[in-house]
Amino acid sequence: MTVTYQGIKAEGRTASNDKGVRTYSQTYILTADAKTDTASDVGNNSQLPSIGSVHATDAMAYCHSLSVNCVSGYTGWEVTAQWSTENSIEGETGLNEDPEQDRHVITWNGSTQNVSIYKDRDGKGILNSAGDPLLDVMDTNLLGVTVASNVSAVPSWILGYRNSINNAAINVGGLAIAAGVARLVFPGGYISAAKTRGDHTYYTFSYELIFDEQESHEGQLLDQGYRQKYSESGVTDGHRNILNDDLTVITEPAMLDGLGEKLDDPSPESAAYITVNKYHLKDFSVLPGVTAQ
Length: 293
Prior knowledge:
Blueprint: E1 3-18, E2 21-32, H1 39-43, E3 62-72, E4 76-84, E5 105-117, E6 136-151, E7 164-166, E8 170-172, E9 175-177, E10 182-185, E11 195-197, E12 200-211, E13 219-222, E14 224-225, E15 227-232, E16 235-241, E17 254-255, E18 273-276, E19 280-282, E20 290-292
Parallel strand pairs: 7-19
Antiparallel strand pairs: 1-2, 2-4, 3-4, 5-6, 6-12, 8-9, 8-20, 10-12, 11-12, 13-18, 14-17, 15-16
């Protein structure tokens, strides 16, 4: 039960270039000495190229297919290998023998979402003519990126990275992103079922980064309430109810100045907002496809 490599079939060599994507095909001749030798035995001959291996004369072309055919009785076999440069960019092949060495696949995303707003385009609070806060709506364009890469095991850090933003400037796909701008999201199916390539078992791991360069994913709440701070003899940072002109307690929240005192003449320019830190700060340079700035 021996499969013997006999060499390259002279007439079995082809090449093409289609819109810059180069492809190659090469056929090899092998012989078997037993009827029990199978296509698997032939295809696994050590002299043949393996999936992900680089073409002999084109370093950007990777082997993506091996086709095994019995051509003469039980003993004559031919194996055709195919290479391609598809998805090979920036000096990296689109596929490697080790799946973890494959280039990260980066996809840029955009969508439109209707959201409530409490500030205008200039950052001023939206108020009515009497100074009461209002909400409006607008269509906002959400931008982001999806990164997919191959890993040998589910990353151990993922549970600690939910609901997080980048704690420092990063770079992904050539785009510089300031600290606090990128929020990490794990989409449905972010870990694939187990796959195999040669002797390697691996998973495809995907994540999304959603960008907010305007507010860095921070919540902005209008500073308003029913009480205000005061200080007087014997009292520091005390609190008391805000009263109407007739000295009754207000029944609707009054706008505050950001320091805990009532605004006497509220306006869009004087409206104060409280920043809410919603998301954890994390080191995003551990993410596949991300580098520190």
